[in-house]
Write a structure and sequence with these properties.
Blueprint lengths: L2 H10 L1 H5 L6 H28 L8 H8 L4 H20 L2 H28 L8 E3 L1 H15 L4 H24 L5 H8 L1 E5 L2 E5 L4 H16 L4 H25 L18 H4 L10 H17 L6 H11 L1 H23 L26 H28 L9
Parallel strand pairs: 1-3
Antiparallel strand pairs: 2-3
């Protein structure tokens, strides 16, 4: 939802005008757009990394943090998708209309993930052997689940989300104990791959933890409607508490992540890096505390952000899905061009079923970190201009269909 559309939410709600000490709705929503924009840039780093052949994490700080900093993307994006859904529901003032929008939007995202985006990742039509169920698939199904949950009060939806986030690691041993899990268990929690008729489906983002995240974000939407001082206090309290709980649980190793702390003696990763090396697939409690806590702390600090950087980030944050659809094939094309110059004999690697089922990275193909970051900067700059154009189009248009891109 664009910033302009969300502004109308506040204008149309009487309580937004009469609550004492309430911040202007635009200042409030700018912080959401800026955070989403920052997430988009971090996402580009990770997806350039995929095509650079750089490992997802590693024993050296440079490789580790190139991956670790991008861990904030999915939690922030899905959490704020729940928040945007709450705000949209406040605008339309109808749970039925909100549910229909979430189901329609969710199905649209799933369709695009399995068709257009899957081609963008691979540049091949080998759909029978590789159908990619990634973050957009996950968001789509999470929206459909939220459509049902949104029939309940926002506080109840938020509480359900928090309970899923806290409790799902308790069921993990039972889920993973089955050596031949059903396709439903794989989709909900275990991940992996299975055949769906003639198609091979590879599950990267399982659903259960992320349904919890989007539901918690929906409940958080009510906090974003609070008076300025209350909202800021709650954001800081919840965010700092999440960070403190992460440190406590990680340091004690009591609960919340399958990766042991302290790390085994034979681990090549330094212990201070292993402390941050929490599990994303499926997203553990500690992974979500580590990433969502700082996001909630930053939100109130960005409410009055100004300047060129804030403007750039806000543009990306206003049209995040448009950015997403463009950035994958653009990065892929750039990777092909670089390979044709550097390692033409290895270019076929970029047309395989990438990134979930690639062969080993060919010898000599892997990029240096400086090249990886240079390509990321150039890609982000190139994407700014079409995103700025589309943001203006969305702000001027009242077309129902523009909400779907």
């Amino acid at each position: 939802m664009s910033a302009t559309a969300v502004e109308r939410v506040g204008i149309e709600q009487p309580e937004a005008r009469t609550v004492p000490n309430a911040a202007p709705v635009r200042a409030r929503l700018l912080s959401l757009d800026i955070v989403r924009g920052a997430v988009m840039i971090l996402m580009a780093i990770d997806h350039v990394r995929v095509y650079a052949g750089v490992p997802a994490g590693g024993p050296t700080p440079g490789i580790f943090f190139t991956r670790w900093v991008t861990h904030f993307c999915a939690p922030a994006f899905i959490f704020l998708a729940g928040t945007a859904a709450y705000l949209y529901g406040q605008k339309v003032q109808s749970r039925g209309n909100l549910a229909r929008f979430l189901v329609t939007r969710g199905l649209w995202l799933i369709l695009l993930e399995l068709t257009v985006l899957r081609f963008g990742w691979t540049f091949n039509f080998d759909y029978a052997n590789f159908t990619f169920a990634g973050v957009i698939w996950c968001i789509g199904w999470s929206m459909i689940a939220l459509a049902a949950l949104a029939m309940l009060p926002a506080a109840v939806v938020g509480a359900i989300g928090v309970l899923i986030i806290i409790g799902h690691n308790a069921v993990a041993p039972a889920m993973f104990a089955d050596e031949s899990p059903s396709w439903l268990v794989q989709v909900l929690y275990v991940g992996g791959g299975f055949k769906a008729g003639p198609f091979g489906v590879a599950i990267l983002y399982v659903l259960l933890p992320w349904i919890g995240v989007i539901a918690a974000g929906y409940g958080f939407g009510a906090i974003m409607r609070q008076p300025t001082d209350t909202r800021r206090r709650l954001c800081l309290t919840i965010g700092l508490s999440a960070i403190a709980l992460f440190v406590l649980l990680r340091a004690t190793g009591v609960y919340g992540d399958p990766r042991p702390w302290p790390p085994p003696a034979e681990s090549p990763m330094p212990s201070w890096l292993a402390f941050l090396n929490t599990a994303k697939y499926p997203a553990s409690l500690l992974f979500l505390l580590m990433t969502l806590g700082p996001v909630l702390v930053v939100l109130p600090l960005l409410e009055h952000a100004r300047g060129r950087l804030a403007t750039w980030l806000r543009v990306f944050g206003e049209v995040p899905f448009f950015y997403y659809v463009l950035h994958i094939p653009l990065i892929h094309l750039v990777a092909v061009a670089i390979s044709l110059v550097r390692t033409p004999q290895n270019t076929a690697w970029l047309f395989a079923n990438h990134p979930l089922m690639p062969p080993d990275v060919p010898d000599g193909y892997q990029w240096s970190l400086p090249l990886l970051y240079l390509v990321t900067i150039l890609v982000v700059i190139a994407l700014y201009f079409p995103c700025r154009w589309y943001a203006k189009v969305k702000s001027r248009s009242r077309s129902h269909w523009l909400k779907f891109l």
